[in-house]
Design goal:
With 364 residues, the protein is an all-alpha fold. The protein has twelve helices and no strands. Helix 2 crosses helix 6 and helix 11 (320-334) crosses helix 12 (338-355).
């Protein structure tokens, strides 16, 4: 008689499924879900928390230097922070409004100038086409007219009632988000020490040390980020000033300062000033000046795109390629705020690995 063989059911080893493994992978899953669904709808609150963390050293400095309690120190730091934002916003809005009104006032002049330039182009075509077949001249004129019409339609598609209505409807939402940001910032700054204490109370001593290490890395990241942005902007200012002293010496210092202030803003950059300025000179017939300004704008763009990853990587503790990749992916996923979120996620992941809080070690 043959011995009947019974197949034993496959049972996972007890050490494969344990409490720590479930907590670790559950935490990773919750973190991914948080990043995908919570961040896009809670940007003001997250920015308030990050701002409170950045301003916390100033609060501690006020407490130590002037022997103040926490609430007065928070109130003073918050007041000066809001004052800086208000003054910066006032200067930017008034400057933008003044420039906008000047453009509106000069619209008839621009229209007349454009019409005269177009007539000059037609005259040049007529002078050049002497002796050419009429059919060829008509076709060239037709294609140029189509091109001009396409450009005009493209410009009008951005400047119409729907676009203005969209912008106007977004203004109240922006102010509501900004108000929520300021209110949340004040309350988080006031209770940040209590929030940290209650958070650390739920951790073991070993985990607390690891989390503090991660927070220290994140704080160093923010310090390095803003320091790197400032250093890159100084390079941009120096190159801009040197270039404009050659191109437009009369307004070189003023425009260099304007471009420097604009360039500090993430994503926007100096090209926002240089491109319209160059186009204006092309439209007005000064192609030489337009070309010089365009070349300067391209040089500034190249400097920022090449120097920024290296400087930011040096001051944030990331390699240039990791910095560049985190900046690009962050912008693609989260928009403008991704310039900050992308490297922050990489720094957080790196700090979790170094602290031992996240251990992912495998071979294929």
């Amino acid at each position: 008689m043959g011995i009947e063989r019974r197949e034993e059911p496959f049972i996972l080893p007890m050490n494969f499924i344990n409490k720590k493994r479930i907590i670790k992978w559950g935490s990773i899953l919750l973190t991914v879900l948080f990043l995908l669904f919570i961040i896009p709808v809670s940007t003001p609150l997250l920015l308030a928390l990050l701002t409170a963390i950045v301003l916390e050293p100033l609060v501690g400095l006020m407490q130590e230097r002037f022997k103040l309690r926490r609430n007065p120190s928070v109130l003073i730091v918050f007041f000066f922070f809001v004052l800086v934002i208000a003054l910066s916003g006032y200067l930017m809005i008034t400057k933008a409004t003044t420039q906008f009104l000047q453009v509106v006032e000069n619209i008839p002049h621009y229209i007349d100038l454009g019409s005269s330039l177009w007539q000059e182009v037609l005259d040049q075509i007529c002078a050049f086409s002497v002796g050419l077949p009429n059919a060829l001249v008509e076709e060239v004129t037709k294609q140029i007219s189509v091109l001009v019409g396409t450009i005009k339609s493209g410009l009008l598609s951005y400047v119409n009632a729907d676009t203005i209505k969209y912008i106007v409807t977004k203004v109240p939402a922006f102010f509501v988000n900004f108000l929520v940001y300021l209110i949340a910032l004040f309350f988080i700054m006031a209770d940040l020490d209590k929030l940290k204490a209650s958070f650390y109370a739920k951790l073991t001593e070993q985990t607390e040390q690891r989390v503090k290490f991660i927070f220290h890395k994140i704080a160093s990241f923010f310090t390095g980020f803003f320091k790197a942005q400032f250093l890159v902007s100084l390079v941009i200012f120096a190159v801009t000033l040197a270039g404009l002293l050659i191109i437009q010496p009369k307004i070189a210092l003023f425009m260099a300062l304007v471009i420097w202030i604009i360039d500090v803003i993430p994503i926007i950059g100096s090209i926002v000033i240089m491109a319209p300025w160059s186009i204006f000179h092309y439209v007005t017939g000064d192609s030489v000046m337009g070309t010089k300004l365009l070349l300067l704008g391209i040089v500034l763009l190249i400097i920022r795109r090449t120097v920024e990853p290296k400087v930011m990587g040096k001051h944030m503790g990331l390699s240039p390629i990791a910095t560049l990749a985190s900046l690009f992916i962050g912008i693609q996923l989260f928009g403008g705020v991704g310039l900050l979120v992308g490297p922050l996620l990489v720094i957080t992941y790196k700090a979790m690995r170094e602290s031992g809080l996240l251990q992912i070690d495998f071979k294929l």
